[in-house]
Amino acid sequence: MATELRRSTRLATRKASDASEYAESKLPLTKRVRKAPKTDAPKKVATDAPKKVVTEAPKKEAGAAKKVETPKKAAAAEASTGPGGELQVGDVLPEITLKNQDQADVKLSDVVKKNKIVVLFAYPKASTPGCTRQACGFRDNYQELQKHAVVFGISADSVKSQKSFQQKQKLPFDLLSDPKRELIGALGARKTAQTGVIRSHWVFVDGKLGSKRIKISPEMSIADGLSEVLLFAKKSLAGNPGKT
């Protein structure tokens, strides 16, 4: 009896288990979704931007050498003022001998030593209007000038041109021919290194340059020349010769 009861119990338990398994088999199956394993995103590696390389400009050396004047420029500068440079007040004339209108040699450096006052006026070209006015102005004042000074005209014209100019205008003083403009250059009256004469005048006192007027009108050359001669003459009489 007891054995029968235990058998019945086991049978009932098995049926219940089978029923439970059957019921579960009828239930919808749910799919299990596998999550992908998490992977860390690659970290950005900070990289420094390439630095700009600053290059310094080469520094100028202190006391850099000054520009050197080329021989060509130096020659042009010398040619524009004549050998030895342009005469300044207080200087003596260079030893240059020129021909006058009569082909006679005139060494003006000796003339200024032998005469108290010497007037020298330069004109661009003989027998041209401005030069004629200048020369004739000295001619018209020559009577007063010769009391105190010796007068010369000078240009780059030929001896022949100077003679014609002197005769035509009845000039009472010598005209010097300086075709190479040697003395004209030394006096500072070259127009350019190649050609030309600047209208000017100079007054020498006791062998030295007392005054100079470069680039002057014919009329002013005459008026200033006369007044300077009279002033130097007055100073000389007072025992005080020299600059104006």
From TrEMBL:
<keyword id="KW-0539">Nucleus</keyword>
<keyword id="KW-0676">Redox-active center</keyword>
<keyword id="KW-1015">Disulfide bond</keyword>
<dbReference type="InterPro" id="IPR036249">
    <property type="entry name" value="Thioredoxin-like_sf"/>
</dbReference>
<dbReference type="GO" id="GO:0045454">
    <property type="term" value="P:cell redox homeostasis"/>
</dbReference>
<dbReference type="InterPro" id="IPR050924">
    <property type="entry name" value="Peroxiredoxin_BCP/PrxQ"/>
</dbReference>
<dbReference type="GO" id="GO:0034599">
    <property type="term" value="P:cellular response to oxidative stress"/>
</dbReference>
<dbReference type="GO" id="GO:0005634">
    <property type="term" value="C:nucleus"/>
</dbReference>
<feature type="region of interest" description="Disordered">
    <location>
        <begin position="1"/>
        <end position="88"/>
    </location>
</feature>
<protein>
    <recommendedName>
        <fullName>thioredoxin-dependent peroxiredoxin</fullName>
        <ecNumber>1.11.1.24</ecNumber>
    </recommendedName>
</protein>
<feature type="compositionally biased region" description="Basic and acidic residues">
    <location>
        <begin position="37"/>
        <end position="72"/>
    </location>
</feature>
<comment type="subunit">
    <text>Monomer.</text>
</comment>
<feature type="domain" description="Thioredoxin">
    <location>
        <begin position="87"/>
        <end position="228"/>
    </location>
</feature>
<dbReference type="GO" id="GO:0008379">
    <property type="term" value="F:thioredoxin peroxidase activity"/>
</dbReference>
<keyword id="KW-0575">Peroxidase</keyword>
<keyword id="KW-0049">Antioxidant</keyword>
<comment type="similarity">
    <text>Belongs to the peroxiredoxin family. BCP/PrxQ subfamily.</text>
</comment>
<dbReference type="Pfam" id="PF00578">
    <property type="entry name" value="AhpC-TSA"/>
</dbReference>
<dbReference type="GO" id="GO:0005737">
    <property type="term" value="C:cytoplasm"/>
</dbReference>
<keyword id="KW-0560">Oxidoreductase</keyword>
<dbReference type="InterPro" id="IPR013766">
    <property type="entry name" value="Thioredoxin_domain"/>
</dbReference>
<dbReference type="InterPro" id="IPR000866">
    <property type="entry name" value="AhpC/TSA"/>
</dbReference>
